[in-house]
């Protein structure tokens, strides 16, 4: 099962941390979708293994429909950043917005904390921290 990006038509590459370096593969898949929520649904319906953002897969993991696998090879895919011009550093609106983001997206996020506590055996989802 794989995901295809609507914006580019490219299949998602799966990164793995192996021996201190990151290796990316694009697996051949019998099922490909361009809808992130469908990935988790298909996997939960015995659609094989796949890669899903943790915030989408978390409810499935919480109820036991999916189990994270290959965690020892997991790679952080992206981080939410909030760049702004240096000239606005002291701007109260910028400070308030950043405080809001820190409240909404604590570290770790609730979905990443859930994955950290999930059982380590079984089949399911190769989850990543990709944020779309």
Short description:
This protein has four helices and six strands, in the order ββββαβαααβ. It is an alpha/beta fold and 132 residues long.
Largest sheet: 2 strands, parallel
Q: Terminal Cα separation, in Å?
A: 18 Å
Order of helices and strands: EEEEHEHHHE
Q: Could you tell me the mean pLDDT?
A: 82
Radius of gyration: 17 Å
Helix content: 25-40%
Number of strands: 6
- How are the strands of the biggest sheet laid out side by side? 1-4
Output the number of helix runs. Answer: 4
CATH topology: D-Maltodextrin-Binding Protein, domain 2
What would the principal axes of the Cα set say about the shape? globular
Give start-end ranges of low-pLDDT stretches. Answer: 128-132
Classify the beta-strand content into a percent band.
15-25%
* Global structural class: alpha/beta
CATH structural architecture: 3-Layer(aba) Sandwich
Question: Any idea how many domains?
Answer: 1
CATH class (first level) name: Alpha Beta
Describe the structure.
The protein has four helices and six strands. It has 132 residues and is α/β, with parallel strands linked by helices. It has a single domain (2-80, 109-128), classed as D-Maltodextrin-Binding Protein, domain 2. The strands form three sheets. Strands 1-4 form a two-stranded parallel sheet. Strands 2-3 form a two-stranded antiparallel sheet. Strands 5-6 form a two-stranded parallel sheet. Helix 2 (54-62) crosses helix 4 (110-117).
Secondary-structure blueprint:
Layout: E1 2-3, E2 14-18, E3 21-25, E4 32-33, H1 36-44, E5 50-53, H2 54-62, H3 92-104, H4 110-117, E6 125-128
Parallel strand pairs: 1-4, 5-6
Antiparallel strand pairs: 2-3
Helix pairs in contact: 2-4
């Amino acid at each position: 099962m794989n995901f295809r990006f609507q914006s580019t038509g490219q299949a998602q590459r799966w990164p793995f941390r192996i021996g201190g370096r990151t290796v990316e593969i694009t697996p051949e898949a019998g099922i490909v979708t361009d809808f992130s929520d469908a990935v988790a649904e298909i996997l939960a319906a015995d659609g094989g293994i796949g890669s899903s953002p943790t915030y989408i897969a978390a409810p499935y993991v919480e109820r036991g429909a999916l189990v994270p696998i290959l965690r020892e090879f997991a790679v952080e895919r992206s981080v939410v950043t909030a760049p702004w011009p240096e000239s606005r550093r002291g701007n109260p609106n910028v400070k308030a917005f950043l405080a809001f983001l820190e409240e909404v997206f604590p570290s770790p996020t609730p979905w990443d904390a859930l994955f950290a506590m999930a059982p380590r055996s079984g089949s399911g989802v190769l989850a990543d921290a990709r944020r779309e």
